[in-house]
Amino acid sequence: MSWPVWSVDDVVAERPAVRVNQLGYLPGRPMRATLVSTATDPVPFTVVRDDGLVAQEGLSHPWPVRPEPTSGLPVHVLDLGDLHEGTFRVVASSSHSHPFRVAARLHADLRDDALRFFSLMRSSTEITAPGYDRPAGHPDTGVPAWTGTDAERLYPGWHDDGTYDVSGGWYDAGDYGKYVTSGAIAVWQLLAALDLVPDDARLADECRWQLSWLLRMQVPAGRPLAGLAFHRVHGTAWSPLPGQPHLDPTERVLHRPSTTAALHLAAAAAAGARHFRATDPAYAHRLEAAARSAYDAARLHPDLLPPDDHARYGGGPYDDSAVGDDFYWAAAELWLATGDHAYEREILRAPEHSADPFDDAGFDFHAVGAPAQLDLALHGSGLADHDRVVDSLRAGADRLLDVQTRQPWGQPYAPAGGWSWGSNGRILNNLVVLGTAHLVAGDTAYRDAVATGTDYLLGRNALGQSYVTGYGIDHSHRQRTRQFGHALDPALPPPPPGALAGGANSVPAPDFPYDQRLVGLPPQCCYLDEPTSEVTNDVCIRWNAPLVWVSTYLSR
């Protein structure tokens, strides 16, 4: 299948000049839009109700830097005022925005769909959801440790002749791999969302599904590198694109255990133990025991790092060359779960504890100092220097506020080195930092910043593109994914509502194809809603998880 030549000018011409949050705005929170216009003076605008009545009038604020560097566009910012509930459009320079709503609990459906995405990504179980039903994919009940020439070259000195039950868990992204370091931070964020709504049975069930898989990825006693966790499980070659999981012809294998996988398992399992202790003490005990043993095993093997295999063998490497932040995160979660002073001592003496983990580039699986400090600030009031941790969080959140105020699109993200693969996930992680700062400190500026930050993801951006399937008129719907591959094979279902696209990526990845149409474009414009654009349009549990957190936070 061929795709049309894409250019920024084409997209700008096709989309309304007035860019709004296509889902809408919450009453009492900031309501802003962005106008693409070459006018240098303020432009009059009106906000019109769906019954034709004018609800608001005003003048735009021309953005002083032209073109605006992240988008390459001349823009104005529109303050829509304080609108009451209803459906509206903005009219400026003879252009009509897409319609949008103002309503309380506006994000409730988004939150439910973003969470449902995880259920559809489940491995080793039949899916019965209408339109997405399929047989169980990848039983993963007798998966061997990888052997052979390639395995020996990648993991010299490692040999394990066992087979293991690693069933369950979620597929990570558009492929059928399951990765401990990506899967652990994803379930940690769902557990954090469970903090916000402790009685949510669906959310708790989804967390248990992934945590139970993590337990199976831990190497059992008596086996080589016992206590550590296998780093990943997937085929020895990439599975066909598109294709359903139960039809995947590739041979599944387990990759060598790693220090980082063990520490991420320890962190997630400890967080799970803390959450489930009141409702299921026996399950919480299993999680705590696994977390303790994984941490101890990592201390015995502190430098068993996952190598970068350049994605040659059917899955992503999820490599990470520094483990200090991983030890810090695991110790933080174990202390919060157990109160054991030995873990508190590890926290206090870690260099990462006095470091600043918050910046506008956003945290991710390979930089987990921020998750550690978020939970310590929120739950660790008994920590010896808790006030300092809270101050660190507030300082980080204040810097994100400053970044956001310097963007005419509302996103607290504009790294000087370029926009990374999965930039939408990083933006959401920055919104998690701001939301947590609000929960800890109560400053409503942080709360408002979370609401404003969602504007970018839902249409107030250079492309006028909502990046969440099913939300907004112009939304991503051809994400790069095997099982939701309708754009490549009409017999397959499309991406479900609530699936987040990875987003703009202005930094070509050396090991993955990068479309030459994007080279040299402004960062926000480096995106293609095409089913083969892995570096801009993949889906990933690690990006949908903060979408669940943010939409849960905004729905409270």
TrEMBL record:
SUPFAM superfamilies in alphabetical order: E set domains, Six-hairpin glycosidases
Pfam families: CelD_N, Glyco_hydro_9
Gene Ontology MF terms: hydrolase activity
Entry keywords, A to Z: Carbohydrate metabolism, Glycosidase, Hydrolase, Polysaccharide degradation
Domain Cellulase Ig-like span(s) in chain numbering: 14-94
InterPro entries, alphabetized: 6-hairpin_glycosidase_sf, 6hp_glycosidase-like_sf, Cellulase_Ig-like, Glyco_hydro_9, Ig-like_fold, Ig_E-set
Glycoside hydrolase family domain residues: 109-550
Stated family: Belongs to the glycosyl hydrolase 9 (cellulase E) family.
Record-given protein name: Glycoside hydrolase family 9 protein
Source species: Cellulomonas fengjieae
